[in-house]
Amino acid sequence: MANNKKDVTAVDQAQIRRLGQKLIKRHRNLLVYMVCGFVAALITTLVFMVLHSWWHNVMVISNTIAFIVSNLASFWFNQKAVFINNVDHEHSTWHKLIVFFTYRVISLIPDTLIMLVGLSWLHLNALLVKIIDQILVGVFNYLTTRSVFQKQEHTMIERAKMRIQEQKNKRDSKN
User: Phi and psi for 48 in degrees, rounded to 5?
Assistant: First the structure.
């Protein structure tokens, strides 16, 4: 009986290990993005805090400078470390940089609004507001950054058409 229990445990552990490896492989980009995103969030927070709290610069200027510095680092992280599989080789680095910053400028709007509301209206701690801001903006940034660096196999409309066709084929095969 004891020997059988050891065999089951070894099999269970092997299955768990394979499942873990599968999950890590499947979500590698997200995991690495989270680590690099954390570093980029640290950069923007540190730059912001130095400019705003220590040097007493205006919040919007401090936030914009922190945004530029951290996003230059973030672009490099994403290009060199995060999105290394299924890479878009059709577009140049300059093209990717322009698209990347276009998306990021869009995220600068809620970033600045969150900071304004948190600091000017709610009078919260600057560090706390910046941390909350980075979490909220980080989700949007991941979704848009993926589209910059990864090769898109199909447009959204093509994927929708393929799904509709697959569903139609399933219904036809059942009839």
Answer: -60, -50
